[in-house]
Amino acid sequence: MAESLLMKSALSFIVLLFILSNLEADAEGKPHGFSRVISPAAIGLKEEKLSHFRLYWHDIVSGSNPSSIRVAAAPSTDTSPTQFGIVRVIDDPLTEGPELSSKLVGRAQGFYTSSSQSDLGLLMAMNFAFMEGKYNGSTITILGRNHVFTKVREMPVIGGSGLFRFARGYAQASTHTVDLKTGDAIVEYNIYVFHY
Ligand SMILES: *[C@@H]1O[C@H](CO)[C@@H](O)[C@H](O)[C@H]1NC(C)=O
């Protein structure tokens, strides 16, 4: 008799503990099963570091094999002094030096669009997909405003993949050369990025 009473109260105590622990978890807003808190080391993260990359971005709009193609525009785009509304998809080579023949280190893949009616201001949305050395296969994502006639344009690095997981930083673009006849442009990109 006394033994079973003891058993019963022990059992209710355990049940109470179980309910309390669940209540506690809920109070922390922690859903069960699909989320957990882990340490950065659990996914191999060590010291965060800052890297600087200097690359040359080649926007080739002319010739038989352009790396930058017009895919969309508004009816008014061609009469707009800023080509407002144009959208170009790019797969632009990124090289170590300003010459297209210098070492290819990656490609800038994405698009840009003229999003200013009063001056030449672009929205840039692109992944810098690296192809060289340990960076091969890793990407840096840049999304920002490129006011092309400003000497140095700054755009945010909003993320990355591979070696650039958790990336944050900024890119500074400055025009190296523009061929006024063809429209081809070479732009120097200096990227400062925190990553692991
Ligand atoms: C980069 O990775 C790809 C796919 O894994 C591979 O085919 C290519 O040879 C690599 N390039 C360099 C320069 O290591």
TrEMBL record:
Subcellular location as annotated: Secreted, Extracellular space, Apoplast
The keyword Transport is assigned to this record: no
Top-rank taxon, per record: Eukaryota
Gene Ontology CC terms: apoplast
Signal peptide interval: 1-29
Alphabetized UniProt keyword annotations: Apoplast, Secreted, Signal
Keyword Secreted: yes
Function: Dirigent proteins impart stereoselectivity on the phenoxy radical-coupling reaction, yielding optically active lignans from two molecules of coniferyl alcohol in the biosynthesis of lignans, flavonolignans, and alkaloids and thus plays a central role in plant secondary metabolism.
Quaternary structure note: Homodimer.
Family, similarity comment: Belongs to the plant dirigent protein family.
Official protein name in the record: Dirigent protein
Source organism per UniProt: Nelumbo nucifera (Sacred lotus)
Source taxonomy: Eukaryota, Viridiplantae, Streptophyta, Embryophyta, Tracheophyta
